[in-house]
Amino acid sequence: MMQGNEKRTNCISLLLVFLGLGLALALMLLPLYSFKAGIYTKKSSNTFVGDEKYREVRAEVEEIAEEYRAKGHNVEISESVTERTNSKGETTSLVAFSIDESFHKSILSFANAGLPSSAALLVMLAAMGAALLAALAGTLPSITKNGRALTGGQAALRDLSCFASLAAMISVPVFVLMNNSLFWRKISLYAQDLLTEGKEELYAKLDGFLYGGSMGEEIGDALKHVSCEHSPLVWALLLCFAVSGIAAILLRYGSVKKKLLRVALYAFVIVVCVITLYPYYVMFITAFRSNAETLDMYFLHMLPTKWLWGNLGDIIKRGVPGFLFNSVLIAGGATLLALLCGIPAAYAMARMHFKAKKFFLGFVIMSQMFSPVVLIIGISQLMNVMHLNDNILGLIFVNAAFNQAFAIWLLRGTFVSIPVEMEQAAKIDGCGTVGSMVRVLLPMAAPGIVTTLIFVFINAWNEYTISTVLISTASKRPITVGITQFSSFNMIEWQYLFAASLLATVPVVVLFMCIEKHLTSGLTSGGVKG
Amino acid sequence: MKQKQSWKPYLWLLPSILLISVFVIFPIVIVFRLSFSEISKSGVVGGFVGLKNYVEAVHLPAFGIVMKNTFWWVISVVGLSTLIGFIIALALNQKFRGRKIARSILIFPWATSLVIQASVWNYIIKYEYGSLNNTLLNLGVIREAINWRASYQIEFIWECACGIFVTIPFVAFCVLAGMQSIDESLYESATVDGAGFFSKLFRITLPLVMPSLTVSTVLNIIYVFNSFPIIFTMTKGAPANKTDTMITFLYMLSFYDRKKGPANALSVIGFLILCFCAGIYMLTMLRKEEDL
Predict the structure, then answer these.
(1) pLDDT digits (tens, 9 = 90+) for A397-427
(2) Predicted pLDDT at B3
(3) Which tens digit of pLDDT belongs to each residue from A421-441?
(4) What ipTM was reported for this prediction?
(5) Strand pairing of B45-48 and B37-39?
(6) Inter-chain contact B181–A529, Cβ cutoff 8 Å?
(7) Helices (H) and strands (E) in chain B — how many of each?
(8) Which of B7, B11, B20 to mutate against chain A (most A CBs within 10 Å)?
(9) A198: pLDDT strictly greater than 50
(10) Which of A170, A224, A403, A448 has the fewest CB neighbours in a 10 Å radius?
(11) For residue A333, pLDDT beyond 80
């Protein structure tokens, strides 16, 4: 029963693989791209449409067109008229004639046209061939020799065919998407003399591809008049590859639904990760560009042409280490203070019974509600009164106070999860409450404490608003405020801004990754579960 | 036994209470007092003026649009980030190769300062030289550079998108924490009973992560409402406060326009809105506390 089923599935999916790949091959050979390429242009001098001069030029152009037609080119003449008024007030026309040749090319013929994606095309073809062969080698035995299990090599071949089909399935849409736009973008960049590298070579190839090598020196001008459109049938390619890809998966794994879900899961996670990492990628590559390249309006280079590691040296000269040091002071001080106040409070909440426990809990949660930003005016007034304005100490206090709630919350959760018996034993051995806490509870709660510590540290490290308001001396700024010195009103030095951002981000991201595992459990035990 | 030393717990709580009182509660008192006082442009505090500051704040020309923006800002960022964060948590709760890496990557935006995140996004969506156009053009996805910030409405949408981007990890990890505490056997018995993916999702997962989801949502409302750097970095509320939310507006009002009176009144209004959310939060938290 199972084997009969498997045989049928294999037959159907093998058929589908052939169908999909065959169709794809057919579509690749069909001339789906229609080109319109100018081969000759002639401008008339000031004339009026229909007058003698005009007819003269027209006849001349027609003659040339005839010559081309005789050679077997499919050409047509088009004219564009620009009207202008001369000094006498008469309207004259400037007529430009052009002879355009329209022809069709298949996707396959692009392979030797010097296209950026021609390599991708060859890879695709290879993948298709491999898929075909592997599918045959891997599946035929299971169909013909009914009931016999596949040998290891055959199974491996079958798997290979599936992967090849998948690869084709992914690379074709990418190719279709990229082919045209990349190609024409490159040509337009060449035409504007923004790109010069490899120009001759590509132009020679294109001359051969589009004009059969007849243009020679004039290819640059001629290319400006080339337009290219792909037939919607190109999209049918996608369908073909999707069919063969699904069939291939079917071959490999009995249940398509389950496997497709798996693929969808991976695709989703990958998309999420790519989007998440994109800003960091931008930050990284921009940090090592030159200033001109960060402001490049032609988008010439995706990656820095020259990695300027010296940008890091430049920002070090411009006070960034000082900002980082201030940030360490503020975040470190705030963390220390938050833990010094938080640990006893969390201990009391976890281990002692008293009447106002609930009231205090409410008080703590209340304080968690108010980010310092809404109270920023009040805080700056308070700092004025306490003479802590423009003082790092003030920032330490504010950060510690506003992280107090979270610290108590996380720590209490950790303390509660540790059994009381150990401390009681320590007390019997003669330790006081403080002694038993320091010697027994705190070492056991170390992971939770480290989590809290890092959490508060990062919060304080990343704090921006309060620091902008409270700190007015440049040398006392933390890094989050310090980086804004690179973005003044009329000029932003993106490369320095991002180089400094990179220095500010890497340590905390690494720290955060360290506590990621504890964070989930911390959030459950402390913050969320209550 | 411990109840006898009734003063002792308070001693343990004292440092914490002191810290919170001085640096959280006291500013609240100051803001309240100032909102009812006359304040000159140079910041000199005068006498009691009743509701004058509030009337002035409400009659500021930008007040309406700022409140509207704040509403949409909070609703869209909290709503969408909760939805997307939940879906991501669902995906990350599956077992697959590379899950650890995916989770580490997802935590990046949470660990990054908002002002840095906002600066990067500000650069990404620049029309003339931004990275998004650069990447898409060089990958061949688009042929012409696209103006990603053609109008202030679109800029505001980008700000919301950035807000969502940085908020998702918090939601995802809160929900993930909730999901991981669900007993695996529940799903197994549901599978035996023939439950499909969606019935498991709505009958088991959702009810059981509801507490985590509620807490993260309420906390998010507060964080997002208070969020300042994204809007301040990307548009500074320009043009003419049309992309301001309440927080950036009151900051500009107070520190740029020197209208401290109305700014304090706005502060109090914001404070009261937060109090309302805090009330809901506290009720849910304290109710759970009774269960312990």
Answers:
(1) 999 998 888 888 888 888 888 888 878 888 8
(2) 47
(3) 878 888 888 777 788 888 888
(4) 0.91
(5) antiparallel
(6) yes
(7) 15, 2
(8) B20
(9) yes
(10) A224
(11) yes
DSSP string, B60-129: STTHHHHHHHHHHHHHHHHHHHHHHHHHHHHHHTS--TTHHHHHHHHTHHHHS-HHHHHHHHHHHT-TTT
Picking from B6, B133, B139, the nearest residue to A178 by CB comes out as B139
Structure pTM? 0.81
Q: Where are the domains of chain B?
A: 72-245
Q: Mean of the per-residue pLDDT values for chain A?
A: 79
Residues of B in contact with A362 (CB under 8 A): 282, 286
Rounded CA-CA distance A196/A198 in Å is 6
Burial label, A138 (beta-carbon count in 10 A; 0-12, 13-18, 19+): buried
Using 50, 70 and 90 to split pLDDT, how confident is the model at A477? very high
Task: Check: CB of residue A282 under 8 Å from CB of residue A302.
Answer: no
Rg (CA), chain A: 36
**Which residues 469-488 of A are in CB contact (within 8 Å) with B?**
469, 480, 483-484, 487
List chain B residues with CB under 8 Å of A373: 226-228, 247, 251
Instruction: Please indicate whether, in this complex, the C-beta atoms of A279 and B105 are within 8 angstroms of each other.
Output: no
Lookup result for tokens 């509207």: B68
Identity of the amino acid at A506: V
Q: How far is the CA of B278 from the CAs of A161, A209, B148, B211, B269, in angstroms?
A: 58, 70, 37, 16, 14
**Please, what sign has the CA dihedral across residues A445, A446, A452, A455?**
negative
Q: Which CATH class is domain B72-245?
A: mainly alpha
For residue B42, the distance in angstroms to the closest alpha carbon of chain A comes to 13
Cross-sheet strand order for the sheet of A33-43: A75-85, A91-105, A33-43, A227-230
Structure tokens at A436: 């038993």
Tell me the per-residue pLDDT of A17-28, one tens digit each, with 9 for 90 and over: 777 777 777 777
